Amino acid sequence: MKNPNLQILVYGKNISSAKVSLKPYAGVKLLKTQKVENPNYVFIDLDITKAAKAGNLQFIFNNGTESSTVNYELRLRTAKPQAVSQADVVYLLMPDRFANGDESNDKYDDMFDTQADRKSPFLRHGGDLQGIIDHLDYFNELGVTALWLTPIIENNTHQTNEGGTMRSSYHGYHFTDHYQIDRRFGGNNAYQKLINEAHKKGIKIIQDAVYNHVGEDAWLVKDLPAKSWLHNWDKYTNTSYKDQPLFDVNGSKFDKKVTEEGWFTSFLPDLNQKDPLLANYLIQHALWTIEYFNIDAWRIDTYIYNDMEFMNRCNKAILDEHPNMLLFGESAVNTVISQSYFTKNNLNIPFKCNLPSSCDFQVQGAINTALKENFGWNEGVNRLYTTLSQDLVYQNPEKLVPFVENHDTDRYFSVIGEDFNKYKLGLTWLYTVRGVPQMYYGTEFLMKNFKNPTDAEVRKDFPGGFKGDTENKFLAFGRNAQENEAFEFNKKLLTYRKTSEALTKGKFMQFTPFDGGIYVYFRYTDKQTVMVVSNTKNTESTVPTANFAEILKGAKSAKNIMTGDTINDISSIKVPAMTALILELK
């Protein structure tokens, strides 16, 4: 690897009293050992030169009266991550709620949470990695090319009291052992199998990473290496969830400290990434995961609550090894400027983040708002236009990951009043503007609900993924007429998108919305131009195209990619109410 340094954490009862030596191994040198407050830990620093080969290192621990040997495997690098880019469409799913392919791993009596019950929205339901493997052909049919799974790392933790209700960590964000895939999902072998089978079918895998915190039952929290591994306060302090103090030139150091070092919840110990040993532990785990499982892209949870200098160091470590890997963070903030601060940006500011991309909450909010509001100077589709007009703050806006819904939001179809025309209009925007579009499981067949009373309402089981389901939305006969129309709409557009150079590689040009709600933009390369004409009004409109001459460049006709019809004269274009036409210019 580019970085020859390796730091190994060794854990054992009073292990720090032992003298550590390395059995001679070509290309590997023991630089030093480090002790911490807790005598049960030793950290071993190694130099791994280019001369080193794959094999087993042997460490001898001698305390004067007895000695023991610990093996550590150096593995051959075989991972070949595939870059995730605008050419892809990301499908976000929650493994526990998607499909149960192996009922034998639903629950274990020797884990802290022994329950699994589909009747409860707050407990585990039994979905697993085999269930995803069983439905890889479904993703191929739909046209998505990358899967983002909410975390599958071990969450061996007790149920937590949230709002007076005991809940399981079925979502996966309460890590207890970074190096183990949760056995209720199938364990490490099942994850490797999923990735191998997905790659065979042209599907990439995105890992969901968490650096900010761990679960309260994490082994390293129960026997903490040092107090400095956590953010400690005189009394419990929750983060304010405010992003502004992190970059506010008028802000206070206290507010910044609360945002960054306050705990996300009382049951998620907040990690102090300024501790160099903890920082190495997290960075090396990220690198190991990518190499061991052959991960294609990396999504980073609760990005803004991490130490930004640590994040820059971690991002650089990954990109040094895999320069084309897409790293994108969850920065659930309220403005374009805020979002850009946490990515590679063009702002003239003292501290610069090096994260290539972000979940595009600004486009998500703009699409949903545009579909709910009547057209106005700042309202309706002008919201989307205005948001996209601010792309100048990003170094690489084409790497952003726009979406209309995810596992933490109200369901898209419910937000827009279950209006099917609006549904198609918003998804047309999602799949044709710049960036790497992300959909959420169930979007394709109109899953709906609000987060009232809890977010479990927007994390329902995929119908047909579990034994005993009375409906099967994986198959056409299990969907009603409108659900099939929605599925076929997504399938047709995503299938076209795969082969469209303009949509997968092209630049983006938009025009000011006009005439009470007409919005026109283009995706284009030297070889292909795609025109998207949106009518957000409640009546049909005829759209003149003379003002788009600079990008039309004399084009006379166009193909409607959703109907297959040819428009022989594009000097003006009829667009039905609340509809977007996707036109490939000829």
UniProtKB/TrEMBL annotation:
The keyword Methyltransferase does not apply. Residues 92-497 form the Glycosyl hydrolase family 13 catalytic domain. Pfam families: Alpha-amylase, Cyc-maltodext_C, Cyc-maltodext_N. Keywords: Glycosidase, Hydrolase. SUPFAM superfamilies: (Trans)glycosidases, E set domains, Glycosyl hydrolase domain. InterPro entries: Cyc-maltodext_N, Cyclo-malto-dextrinase_C, GH, GH13_cat_dom, Glyco_hydro_b, Ig-like_fold, Ig_E-set. One of its GO terms (molecular function) is hydrolase activity, acting on glycosyl bonds. This is Neopullulanase SusA. It comes from Emticicia aquatilis. The gene is susA.
